[in-house]
Amino acid sequence: KEKRIIYIGKGNIKSRVKDHLAKDWDIFRVDYSVIKDNDEMFKYESYHLEQYKKDNGAYPPLNIIGGRK
Predict the structure, then answer these.
(1) Which of 32, 39, 40, 29 is nearest to 11 (CA)?
(2) 63/60 Cα distance (integer angstroms)
(3) Which residues, including other chains, have CB under 8 Å from residue 61's CB and lie 6 or more apart?
(4) Most buried among 18, 55, 59, 68, using CB within 10 Å?
(5) What is the rounded CA–CA span in Å between residue 67 and residue 3?
(6) 65 - beta bridge partners?
């Protein structure tokens, strides 16, 4: 509803969303892309994380980089 990005990354999207719904989070929409090549996946993820950080001053709240948020 608030149109906030909470996570950018690869993984099992279905299980990630279920985990957050169990915490009574009000997730309205999930956008995702299917990228089968690992190198392309890494480039795509890195680009979007850096763009988000550039625009917002930090990574999305549920992204953990190097063991830290």
Answers:
(1) 32
(2) 6
(3) 6, 7, 69
(4) 59
(5) 26
(6) 68
Report whether 56 contacts 3 (CB < 8 A).
no
pTM for this model (two decimals): 0.73
The total of other beta-carbon atoms located within 10 Å of residue 8's CB is: 19
The encoded tokens of residue 42 equal 């890494």
Q: Which of 13, 9, 14, 11 is closest to 44 using CA atoms? A: 9
Output the six-digit token pair for 27.
């997730």
Q: Report helix, strand or coil for 29.
A: coil
Distance of alpha carbon 38 from alpha carbon 4, whole angstroms: 26
